[in-house]
Amino acid sequence: MASSIEGPHRGGPRALSAGDRRFAAPARGHSRLPMPALALLMAALLTGCAATTGSTAGESSPTAATPAAVTPTAAAPTAAGTPGNAAAGNGAPGTGAPGVESTTQGRTDAGEHPDIPAPLGGLGPRVLALIPGNARQAVVVTGRGRDATRSEAVLYRRTASGWEAGMAWPAHNALNGWTDDHLAGDLRSPIGVFTLSDAGGLLPDPGTLLPYDESPGFSVDGTGFMGEPLAGSFDYVVAIDYNRVPGTSPLDRTRPLGADRGGGIWLHVDHDGPTQGCVSLEERHMRQLLLALDPEQHPVIVMGDAGSLSR
């Protein structure tokens, strides 16, 4: 069955390409309204994110749902930004491909925050310009190379004196690396700055301040690209607002930019292998991230390979 959420790859292993200091946050959570029917949830999920050989919910695929990323120009229901082309200055909302220099839904508009404090780890001026002025938390995911599957994630907190870094967490990204122009099924993670507004998982809310959808729809099985088991990959997830509608469950399949642009790009539990488009962290680190993220701090994720993020 065609996958519409980029998630674990179920099937035979595929060859890889080359390649806690957490910030304290109140441990109270917000529950989300229950999802429709369990059958719909399961159907939505069994087509998705990490690197599966069967079915999973999560990363984008030909029949993905709505986008909500953060880019230079806004035109979608998200913290800041809208979809756009990968060329700087191409600011027609809802058009083009998401990327660091594009106007992708969920991305933040450039030039809205002239008071950016001291820069954070290795980010270049173009990328820094995409971070919203009201963002006080930023998860920076830096890939080892354009085609590499391993990355490092750091949660930064914005203070009066600049950005303060937390501990570095090892991470995986998509099988084929990174891209400025993500398409469903390309097995690459989208590069850019995206808002983080919703969470969920198979397990109960650990105490996050983000809206949290606990649902059996986050169940996943099968094996990943390296033959690793995918069970538990969606125990905890944070939706990355790329081609999705913020304020909805990560399982929501609405795709503002169209199904061909993929969707279901999440932060989720690592399964010891590359993903289809998501970013994965060890379970303990996902819990720490969930407890640290605070919607009042307008958190974003800045993600891409080191070279792209230095632009």
Query: How many helices?
Result: 4
Counting helices, strands and paired strands, the structural category is mainly beta
Indicate the radius of gyration in whole angstroms.
Answer: 17 Å
Distance between the termini: 39 Å
User: What portion of residues belong to β-strands?
Assistant: 25-35%
Protein name: Lipoprotein
Region (Disordered): 53-121
Organism: Streptomyces chlorus
Biased composition (Low complexity): 53-90
Brief synopsis:
The chain is mostly beta strands.
List keywords for this structure.
single chain; 311 residues; mainly beta; eight-stranded mixed barrel; three-stranded mixed sheet; 4 helices; globular
Topology of helices and strands:
Layout: E1 5-9, E2 30-31, H1 38-45, E3 49-52, E4 59-60, E5 69-70, E6 106-107, H2 125-128, E7 137-143, E8 150-159, E9 162-172, E10 178-179, E11 189-190, E12 192-201, E13 211-214, E14 237-240, E15 266-269, E16 279-281, H3 283-292, E17 300-305, H4 306-309
Parallel strand pairs: 1-3, 2-13, 5-6, 7-17, 10-11, 12-13, 15-16
Antiparallel strand pairs: 1-4, 7-8, 8-9, 9-16, 12-14, 12-17, 14-15
Report on the architecture of this protein.
This is Lipoprotein. It comes from Streptomyces chlorus. The chain is 8% helix and 26% strand. It contains four helices and 17 strands. It has helices spanning 38-45, 125-128, 283-292, 306-309; strands at residues 5-9, 30-31, 49-52, 59-60, 69-70, 106-107, 137-143, 150-159, 162-172, 178-179, 189-190, 192-201, 211-214, 237-240, 266-269, 279-281, 300-305. The strands form four sheets. Strands 7-8-9-16-15-14-12-17 form an eight-stranded mixed β-barrel. A hairpin with a 6-residue loop joins β7 (137-143) and β8. The termini are far apart. 63% of the residues are buried.
